[in-house]
Amino acid sequence: MLTSRSVNSDGANVGLDPAPARLTVGIVSAGRVGSALGVALERAGHVVFGVAAISDASVHRARTRLPESPVLPVEEIARRSELLLLAVPDAELPGLVRGLAGAGVVRPGTIVAHTSGANGIAVLQPLTDQGALGLAIHPAMTFTGHDEDIDRLANACFGVTAADEIGYAIAQALVIEMGGEPVRVAEEQRTLYHAALAHGANHLVTVIVDAVAALREALAGPGLLGQPVVDDQPGGLSERLLAPLVSAALDNALRRGPAALTGPVARGDVDAVAAHLRAFESVDPRLAAAYRALSLRTAELAETNPALLDLLAEKGH
Asked: Which of 140-154, 161-175, 223-237 has the highest mean pLDDT?
């Protein structure tokens, strides 16, 4: 829990009060991220007094996840908060901050934390100029809107950015209370930090979706006795075939880095990779182009057969 300083009758500091400081928390808005963090903060003993929610989905999440927190106007949320959590999409954050600053509804001393990965604390300057304490607290996790989001916070890292050591200490305490692991990210590195996360997570989904689609094509037709028909529904035979392989590959990559590379590209097998390119080209030229680009990067990491590098780099693909 966050702790507060005690004072004696003369107003002098007498050290840290071991009793936890309960913050009055307001959340804008009750989307997937905001509602999950709201639950985590309440479990830590803070009080989410209200949330802002506009869409039907956000209202439903607020009522389901935070049933004792009424849906209130943004201005009222901002005015009453000791901790104001801005959990809106990256593109909406600057406008929201400017609007709150223009309305003058955020009290000096309010902790204003946003959950945007792409932004540091510079985006909060209109409010910090008015006396707020700005923090960037980004959970490095994909949120689905389901209950597992809250459980996953216990294993998630949070990229935190603050203006000074006091801010970092507060951000660190909040993240630890929510069950996460705080990781310090310098203001000037927020864009690179966010780009790396997007590259790793978003493009992984693209690769898996493409691989599943190709497997469905390869497995189409009659199967073995009792084997389910291959269709386009999620969680089918193609996904089950791929799951152990990609799970092991991800685990090995995180544990061993480039040494985890296996397969024909890492081995420098020109004939096999050329055959892969022809097979993908017959299904979807865009898939072949993606395979070529990723294979080229893989070959560079593996420092493999120069002839394979030439094959993958040819034709301007």
From this structure: 161-175
